[in-house]
Recover the amino acids of this structure.
């Protein structure tokens, strides 16, 4: 999923101080609005693929972790400013993001994105909705003839298609498939698009020790099959390691 540019060196300094001061609890920031990766369940708790993954990573790294929710458009700035210590929010690893933050080893392979619409659409001249600051929004912006319509949340992109404001939405296929299955008027259209470099846990560039602990835990989950089991459970159409 996403793409933000931060401004001041002061933010970076504040972020580097957070882990240096030695928090006893590592705070994991997520959006809580992008099922099946992350969402808020009926009990008001963070749930989904990344909740299970994050809890297992913390257990293996012998870290005490707590979950924090944050809107997508400010999720990177609030990591850098120290409001939490890692991003676990369906964030694809990109060169642009790596200019601002660092990433753990990836815990998913590059996953296909898909278009969803009300019947067949000529995508070459369509108005296409996407969540702002995502790899999907960047892709639509590069499509010749297409018009990008950005929204703050994933649910708003779906609503834009249903009310006729947009012809289609581009998002992670794992997010769109359940939407299409639940609404007979909506369907996956066109060809899948493979963008992004897989998803990793985002950390401040100064937090190399935390990054390495996360990466080692993810690597161990790959080795013993635990990660593939979680992918199969939550993202059944995604590739496994």
């Amino acid at each position: 999923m996403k793409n933000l540019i931060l401004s001041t060196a002061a933010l970076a300094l504040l972020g580097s101080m957070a882990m240096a001061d030695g928090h006893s609890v590592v705070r994991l920031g997520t959006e809580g609005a992008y099922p099946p990766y992350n969402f808020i369940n009926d009990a008001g708790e963070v749930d989904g693929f990344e909740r299970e993954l994050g809890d297992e990573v913390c257990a293996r790294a012998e870290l005490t972790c707590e979950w924090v929710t944050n809107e997508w458009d400010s999720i990177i700035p609030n990591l850098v400013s120290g409001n939490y210590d890692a991003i676990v929010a369906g964030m694809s690893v990109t060169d642009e993001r790596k200019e601002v933050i660092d990433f753990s080893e990836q815990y998913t392979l590059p996953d296909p994105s898909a278009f969803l619409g009300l019947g067949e659409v000529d995508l070459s001249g369509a108005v296409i909705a996407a969540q702002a600051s995502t790899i999907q929004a960047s892709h639509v912006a590069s499509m010749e003839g297409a018009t990008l319509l950005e929204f703050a949340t994933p649910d708003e992109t779906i609503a834009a298609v249903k009310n006729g404001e947009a012809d289609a939405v581009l998002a992670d296929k794992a997010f769109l498939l359940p939407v299409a299955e639940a609404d007979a008027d909506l369907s996956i259209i066109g060809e899948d698009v493979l963008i992004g470099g897989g998803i990793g846990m985002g950390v401040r560039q100064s937090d190399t020790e935390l990054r390495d602990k996360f990466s080692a835990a993810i690597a161990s989950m790959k080795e013993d099959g635990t990660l593939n089991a979680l992918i199969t459970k939550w993202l059944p159409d995604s590739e496994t390691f």
